[in-house]
């Protein structure tokens, strides 16, 4: 009756036969065979396979949802019966990039590891907006606004933006009196070439032109200090350079205040204890 259920849930959790096999330390063919036998016993198809991906059928979605509830209840029942205090252990995979991730989030995670030494952390500093579910990440740190409805977003920190230029650049640059004047300037692009500003009729986007694009904020800072153009960066990244007079803030009255860094994780019925504890720990540290 129970044969193959743990393998089915592993495939659902990992998103592929090969990743499930790796987690369970079995062969991919064993996983495939167990899923096939489970479907034969149930008399229904749970997973649609293609050469590149697998997808749950409607029956598979309903079945997985009920199994996850049962699985969690079994874990809770065992712990209650044995009087065991859960000790979090195992890997947590996190993706993120930038100074905020390196200088603020990573130190907090290090403190979490001191508290729970049986947890192992893998941080991938990747500026690419990876698919958490497809690529097998537990958490992500992202800046901006959430687009993927499959994910849950919890705010870590509000991060207002600044428009910046060096004194040398401003000496010879065209006038800049409103966001629309950015069309006449070279802009240094970090994430998007559409910059958002408060205008008379609400928040509007201005499409900017650039001969410099980088997903590393420090590279943007160096280009801006060198007088190559105007940068649009988070306040916490640029504040020290403004204080020293190396960069000049511009059009402060037009800046939006809805930007933030977010803790992102997939919508799941069953989140491992170690991941739940890290989520709670980071929210506590930042809030």
Automatic annotation (TrEMBL):
Q: Please name the Gene3D superfamilies in this protein's record.
A: 3.40.190.290, Winged helix-like DNA-binding domain superfamily/Winged helix DNA-binding domain (1.10.10.10)
Annotated ranges, domain HTH lysR-type: 1-57
Please provide, alphabetically and separated by semicolons, the GO molecular function terms listed in this UniProt record.
DNA-binding transcription factor activity; sequence-specific DNA binding
Pfam hit, one: LysR_substrate
Gene Ontology terms describing biological process:
DNA-templated transcription
**What keywords does the record list, in alphabetical order?**
DNA-binding, Transcription, Transcription regulation
Q: Record's CDD domains?
A: PBP2_CrgA_like
Show the InterPro entries listed in the entry.
LysR-type_TF_proteobact-type, LysR_HTH_N, LysR_subst-bd, WH-like_DNA-bd_sf, WH_DNA-bd_sf
Its domain of life?
Bacteria
By sequence similarity, the record places it as follows: Belongs to the LysR transcriptional regulatory family.
**Name this polypeptide is given:** HTH lysR-type domain-containing protein
* Species the sequence originates in: Pseudoalteromonas luteoviolacea DSM 6061
């Amino acid at each position: 009756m129970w044969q193959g259920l743990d393998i089915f849930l592993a495939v659902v959790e990992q998103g592929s036969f090969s990743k499930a096999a790796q987690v369970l330390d079995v062969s991919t063919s064993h996983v495939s065979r167990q899923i096939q036998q489970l479907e034969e016993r149930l008399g229904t198809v749970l997973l649609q396979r293609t050469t590149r991906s697998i997808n749950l059928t409607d029956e598979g979605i309903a079945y997985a949802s009920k199994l996850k509830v049962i699985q969690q209840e079994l874990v809770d029942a065992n712990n209650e019966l044995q009087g065991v205090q859960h000790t979090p252990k195992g890997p947590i995979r996190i993706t993120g990039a930038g100074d905020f991730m390196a200088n603020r989030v990573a130190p907090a995670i290090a403190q979490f590891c001191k508290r729970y030494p049986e947890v192992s952390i893998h941080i991938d500093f990747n500026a690419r907006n990876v698919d958490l579910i497809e690529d097998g990440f537990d958490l992500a740190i992202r800046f901006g606004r959430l687009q993927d409805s499959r994910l849950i977003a919890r705010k870590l920190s509000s991060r207002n933006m600044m428009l910046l230029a060096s004194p040398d650049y401003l000496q010879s640059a065209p006038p800049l009196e409103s966001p629309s004047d950015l069309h006449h300037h070279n802009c240094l692009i970090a994430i998007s070439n559409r910059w958002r500003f408060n205008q008379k009729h609400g928040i509007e986007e201005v499409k900017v032109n650039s001969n410099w694009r980088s997903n590393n904020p420090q590279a943007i800072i160096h280009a801006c200090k060198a007088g190559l153009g105007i940068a649009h960066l988070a306040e916490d990244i640029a504040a020290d350079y403004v204080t020293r007079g190396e960069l000049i803030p511009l059009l402060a009255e037009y800046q939006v205040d809805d930007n933030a860094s977010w803790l992102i994780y997939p919508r799941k019925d069953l989140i491992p204890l170690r991941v739940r504890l890290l989520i709670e720990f980071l929210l506590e540290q930042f809030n």
